[in-house]
Amino acid sequence: MNDERRFVIASSLLLTILFTASVYAGYTAGQDYPIEKELKRFFEYFGGFFDNPIILALIIFANNAGKSLIAMLAGFFFGIFPIAFVMLNGYIVGVVISWREPDWGLAKVVLAIIPHGILEIPAIIIACAYGVWLGYRFYLALFRGEEFKKYLLRAVRVYVKLVLPILLIAAFVEAFITPVVVGAA
User: Fold this and answer.
1) Which residues contact 155 (CB under 8 A, 6 or more apart)?
2) Residues 73-102: pLDDT tens digits?
């Protein structure tokens, strides 16, 4: 196993732990945070887009693809941004779980996350793990004079060949399958 793969696997494990801890923190904090008004306002403003599942899937894909690309590329700032991105997303997931659990029950909330989350969360974690790796490579380039461009191109290739297709599938699962699962629960 090469150094890149070892580094990305270790970073992915660390980011998964941070994501999980952030979900718990968001869940705990969300019980005391009046998010319902803000989410209702959001859905009222953007409600028409959510009626068409194809448009919804494309919006979800564009949102996740853009943010995960930015998180990965901003990793050259010593990996700080991708770590913060994963933690913020975990926190938001936790807040949403705490908001929906009283009405839906925990089982239904989990069913609403699993179909697309099983794809989306690992894809974002992989992108962010490559962002942390880019931070390490940038450090080596800055302080040891090592090349950086080839590592940046390698990360972008992984993003295009692996992360983007997974995010696309996850977006369509979220738009078409998740509502069916939630409605049946």
Assistant:
1) 72, 73, 130, 131, 133, 134
2) 999 888 999 999 999 999 999 988 998 898
